[in-house]
Amino acid sequence: SLKMASDSPESLMTLCTDYCLRNLEGTLCYLLDNETLRLHPDIFLPSEICDKLVNEYVELVKTDSVFEPHESFFTLFSDPRSTRLARIHLREQIVQDQDLEAIRKQDLVELYLTNCEKLTAKSLQTLVSFSHTLISLSLFGCCNIFYEEENPGGCEDDCLVNPTRQVLVKDFTFEGFSRLRFLNLGRLIEGVNVETLLRPLASLAALDLSGIQLNDVGFLTQWKDSLVSLVLYNMDLSEEHIQVIAQLRKLRHLDISRDHLSSYYKFKLTRRVLNLFVENLVNLTSLDISGHTMLENCTIPSMEEKMGQTSIEPAKSSIAPFRGLKRPLQFLGLFETSLCRLMHIPAYKVSGDKNEEQVLNAIEAYTEHRPEITSRAINLLFDIARIERCSQLLRALQLVITALKCHKDDKNIQVTGSAALFYLTNSEYRMEQSVKLRRQVIQVVLNGMESYQEVTVQRNCCLTLCNFSIPEELEFQYRRVNELLLNILNQSRQDESIQRIAVHLCNALVCQVDNDHKEAVGKMGFVMTMLKLIQKKLADKTCDQVMEFSWSALWNITDETPDNCEMFLNYSGMKLFLECLKEFPEKQELHRNMLGLLGNVAEVKELRPQLMTSQFISVFSNLLESKADGIEVSYNACGVLSHIMFDGPEAWGICEPHREEVVKRMWAAIQSWDINSRRNINYRSFEPILRLLPQGISPVSQHWATWALYNLVSVYPDKYCPLLIKEGGIPLLKDMIKMASARQETKEMAR
């Protein structure tokens, strides 16, 4: 079912929501005074649609760098007569006091505010306006919501010296929140009296007090008949806590897990504590004791371990206290405890570090609120993907994508997540992945590259992109990918390995793409960036992959793109060409790439006069004799000269070398090539070659063009015969055979 889920197209609802949010002005809204968004007066939307608009908006602002947030977005939902909100989830810096204030007239049933650090005590007052309808509320990580700004009285000057101080609000309680059942106060600021805050709530069903230190939790017993879920993650427990928990007999979910790295805990789990839970909390279906140290041995001796298959039957449990369970637990959290490695664990789902299933359960359970745990779980997944084979690939990928999206600014998750993605997207898993899923991977990889200048993240992201078919799979984010890569290559201090991968990617991105793509990338500064890299390498006297890829990328990006050819000349590309030739006389790959590029420049009539100097013509003529890379260097040098000759004797504005002398050397070169040579070159179009056929000014250019076509169609007939026919080569060849000026051997080849 997962396979199907990841493959099916987005629902029409999702597509419409996304479209409207990206085009608010022009769908739902108009702009008032050129700045404020206003809803069209004839629009009435139910909560199913409004909730989705708000929740998707938050998601887009968070994960899509191109999406622009709107100052006045939340004001669109200020009037319940036209827009209804019921269940909304807001996150992080996206939401401010005035945004909540804007929607205060709505009858919210569910409001999740996660890590909204910009909210202050003003928003506590706004919450009161939802008090009569609110059933579910999360203030997880809203660390400033209990602070208000106190402005000390006195003169204006004094205020400048002593700006607003933050003061803790002590008098707020949930008085009047008569329907509130589910409450998450995770990571609440110290100094707030939790007991006073909660006392007015009549019947709490779920309470999350993650990361709060309370010495006395006796007040929890006031909900012993209603509380079904209690989370005390990272609370330092004591015997008193345990006794209180044991009285909450309606509990179905209990989480007393902790991060064993975060600080020193006195509390140790014992067999007696687990027994107490099993005996008293008879409705328990989910228990999390991750990160705890067991003070004594709770395990059944290993003799019984050897018996038969693994079992989730409580009677066979390897953890002694759990033999008292009436039925297996739905979930048991054992991450970073020794218990997860036992054989018989009486639970359908276990989080732990023993195998892939347990690790994926951990990532799934802890991603939203516990990035510190999640990053360690993803690290374990990374090892599994690297060393063994992932058996639940789609689930693993989806979980890592979710974690990377959810914690865009968490360095640990970005490092481990991007590394795991590299192994999860490599070729052996390719078949199992849908286009949609692979696009999601590309999106989070680019997000990571954008948010993090950190070397490891950048390297992991670049490596992951190499697992995709380029340019096809990156086409939908073409501009953005190129901008990010050029950004990496333009940094003054560079990591060698990242530079190498980034240049390789740049080269692949401009290979075999449409000319408008190449022009766009040229305008981004691609040509300049490559030439700078070449300049640096030249200064270091090194001809490595970066040097070769940079020339290759220039060869690709100038193909049939005159603007980029002109940029190459304007930024002293020819000077670098000559210097590289002189510095690295033996580097065949390099010579081939450089001459391929100059072939592209020579195809542009307006630029050819710039190649007409004694120095350049001599260099090209001497390269006719080159045996570098088979015939490629000689062939490309001859191509450059063929285009120059095509402009006729009057364009030959130099005394040395003589035109006839160069022509003679060209004939000799062409005759020395093996007509069956296999080629290191890729033509997307024959147009620049075909234009040399119907002319009598330069028979040698005509001969070079005919040789080129003959070689390509005879060695690679499947690829090049259709191209020759499609581009109208046949009539041109037939006409040329009738021309008096054409040489006999040229006509023979044409036939």
Automatic annotation (TrEMBL):
The keyword Metal-binding does not apply. Residues 196-337 form the Zer-1-like leucine-rich repeats region domain. It comes from the Eukaryota. Residues 404-750 form the Protein zer-1 homolog-like C-terminal domain. Keywords: Acetylation, Leucine-rich repeat, Repeat, Ubl conjugation pathway. Interacts with the ELOC-ELOB/Elongin BC complex. Part of an E3 ubiquitin ligase complex including ZER1, CUL2 and Elongin BC. This is Protein zer-1 homolog.
